[in-house]
Amino acid sequence: MEKVALLKCTGYEVDQIERKLREGFELLGGQAFLRELIPADSKVLLKPNFLSVVEKGSPIITHYAVFEAVVRIVKEYSDNISFGDSPGQEDTRKAAEKSGFMEIADKYGVKFADFNQAVHCELDKPLMYKYWDIAKAPHEADVVITLPKLKTHAMMYYTGAVKNQFGCIPGGQKAGWHTKLPDSASFAKMLLDLNSLVKTSFAILDGIVAMEGNGPRNGTPRQMDTLIMGKSVTAVDSTAVRLIGYENVLSIPVLKAAQDSKWGTVLPEEIEVLGESIENMKSRDFKLSRNAKVVNFLTPGLTSLVSSLTAPDPVLVEEKCIGCKKCDEACPEKSKVISFIKHDGKIIPKWNYSKCIRCFCCQELCPKGAIVTRDKALARVLGLNRR
């Protein structure tokens, strides 16, 4: 039985978060658990979610107060702590500085890790890929603690502990993975391989303020008062998706991939939730990015085909568009998918949906929230439209 600590934390006051995290560690085994997690003199890497360069306290990224509370606890077990991430298009150091992380790191003697330096490595018994180029810092760390943000995600339905490790791939290489793996099922297996390669040790999910709707960048902040922590990244994610309304956890691509491959603990009956109860903490009206309904046909191939035919489309909210062309920069398929036309006196993007791979990088990285997802008619007929 995998154990996960579910904690109620009502705000981003660092002392309160620290108290709650210490409560969580006590529930999981206290000092003995922490000493096993962080052996003496371990090289510890903290991996927050830096999706973009944003202001301090933005709901787009892991909150700086969660980072500080974690640093305070980890410093009792190791003085060799670093942190880092690799956003898809923007500079990690600028993201760390603007969001307040660098100030905290300097205060506690935590080193900044540059994720742009990659190493070539090999994974035994992969689900998808044996050979990789990943950031050197997480590859060389003894202990990797991921600090994700609870958010919706157009491609993967939800982003949390497993998906956060995609930041361990240097920014410029991320688009290539979307091109190679345009469907969510294959992408999910890749994420599991990546977590195996990085050897993610522990997850602390920041859901104090989550993001619903048009996530992971342009959704709506949603107060959830939640911290979730555990050694199993899939168990943490399974607990999180139940809180936001996914009763069938296998409707989440990465959790289905983990269950099918026996990669990690996923099913609710195999997870002991300590602390608060899911029933008391769950939201009844969280705005999801994709519906929880799973449709299985006679063959995996037919199921995959129907899934591709019912995946939503990225569409433009024209009044919000500023013509910055960030969508084209983010698109792994570049000009094959997005072209620009003049309409009502401004330049706006136009999609070639026959070439679009539905990775939603354009929607994810649009700085103005001008791109949303729209369900296809077939999805509505099959009852797969969003909630």
Automatic annotation (TrEMBL):
One matching Pfam family is DUF362
Ranges in a coiled coil:
none
Which UniProt keywords are given for this protein, alphabetically ordered?
Answer: 4Fe-4S, Iron, Iron-sulfur, Metal-binding
Q: Name one GO molecular function term.
A: metal ion binding
Taxonomically, which superkingdom?
A: Bacteria
Q: Which residues form the 4Fe-4S ferredoxin-type domain?
A: 312-343, 347-376
**The keyword Ubl conjugation is annotated on this UniProt entry:** no
Q: What Gene3D superfamilies does the record tag this protein with? A: 3.30.70.20
Q: What does this protein do?
A: Ferredoxins are iron-sulfur proteins that transfer electrons in a wide variety of metabolic reactions.
Tell me what this protein is called: Ferredoxin
Native source organism of the sequence: Ruminiclostridium cellobioparum subsp. termitidis CT1112
